[in-house]
Design a protein that fits this description.
The protein is built from 5 helices and 7 strands. It is globular and about 75 Å long. The N and C termini lie far apart (about 55 Å).
């Protein structure tokens, strides 16, 4: 057929077909993968914070446990700062919470100074607490992991409702469940933690979009 010239086929594949795919995806309902909830209603960080000003509520939080060896945690936090924090610093309600034993205040102050030398610290939250309370908070995550000297090499995602998010089909996890993301591994931060935070934010965006659409529909029918 003269209509199906090679040029037209190429134009269709380059421009029309992608547009059709976009329209189908943008109008579909729940056509994306949601980030699984692994543990519901973890203990809020305000319960262990001495100032009581920090909270998981209405925020997307990446939680790190620094432990007693702050120097050992420095490289991990620098990795998170570079690969995660700087990518999401302007996202609404995003924060990174670093929890540490109260007696490590001086070492943490130096760590904050080093990170702040090349970073806007507005969404970094450092929370001192008693060791027993740090353990209690971590226990509420109900992971298959343990704290070592009240610290962990993993970062954890807590959603706006205080739920621990992660993966249930991770190919590198023994039982498929990925509770935390290895801060020592740049590839894990880039390919897993970053992607999963994006998924969570898109989940919130889609819910917000559906909510507004439902309001508009109700208004049209006079409800």
């Amino acid at each position: 057929m003269k209509f199906l010239t090679k040029k037209r086929v190429v134009l269709f594949l380059l421009f029309i077909f992608p547009l059709i795919c976009f329209l189908i995806l943008s109008t579909g309902q729940n056509n994306f993968t949601k980030l699984p909830i692994l543990t519901e209603n973890v203990l809020d960080v305000s319960e262990i914070s001495e100032s009581k000003t920090s909270t998981f509520k209405e925020r997307v939080s990446v939680v790190c446990f620094l432990g007693e060896d702050i120097e050992k945690s420095k490289t991990r936090l620098l990795n998170v700062n570079e690969k995660i924090y700087k990518k999401f610093i302007d996202f609404k309600q995003f924060q990174i919470i670093a929890i540490y034993p109260s007696e490590k205040e001086v070492a943490v102050a130096e760590l904050k100074k080093q990170i702040g030398a090349f970073t806007d610290m507005k969404n970094w939250v450092f929370v001192p607490s008693e060791k027993e309370m740090i353990q209690t908070l971590f226990n509420s995550f109900k992971t298959d992991e343990f704290l070592e000297n009240f610290g962990s090499s993993n970062a954890f995602i807590i959603d706006k409702n205080g739920n621990l998010r992660g993966r249930i089909d991770d190919k590198d996890a023994e039982n498929g469940k990925l509770y935390g993301y290895d801060m020592n591994a740049v590839a894990v931060l880039k390919d897993k933690l970053k992607d999963d935070i994006n998924v969570l934010y898109y989940e919130y965006y889609a819910a917000f979009k559906d909510k507004n659409k439902n309001k508009a529909d109700r208004k049209e029918v006079g409800l």
